[in-house]
Amino acid sequence: MPSFLFLNDPILCLKKIKMNLLILRFVNIMMVALVAGTVFAITVGFNPKTLSAPAYVEMQQLAIKSLNTLMPLLGLITIIITFLSAFLHRNDKPVFILLLTGAGFLIISGLITKFGNQPINSIVMTWDKHTVPADWTSLRDHWWNLHLFRTATSIAALGLIIYSYLKR
Description:
Helix 1 (about 10-45) packs antiparallel against helix 5 (about 135-165). The chain has one domain (about 5-165). It contains 5 helices and no strands. By secondary structure, the chain is mostly helical.
């Protein structure tokens, strides 16, 4: 049945709107869970502080090649979906504020990535694992601290977005 036919039946129209909001909420939670889950998994599984210089370079370069394009794109899509959801919930102030705050945490995560982690990633990509600079641990540690902060902001966003939907 074409969607314009629902306009003549307010109950069917309302049901369709509610279903679309439910789908949007589901997609929003899935997307933010993918973002937060990925950074959390890196935090839990890839602490570089115990690695030798060659192992660190090899692991980082592989991770950068795998995630350097995917994760920022996934993050951007998640931010857009969260803002769209907030806009659609603008009449429910508590949900609206929680979603905007969650989007804010996602933006902070993205800014940390863009202006903190990615410049270091660019440097690491120029390294040869057999001739690592003498100060490699300071860059490694700085990258790691930035990563821990973006992990916290990503998880905060996930929590706020899930809570905003449960609150309803």
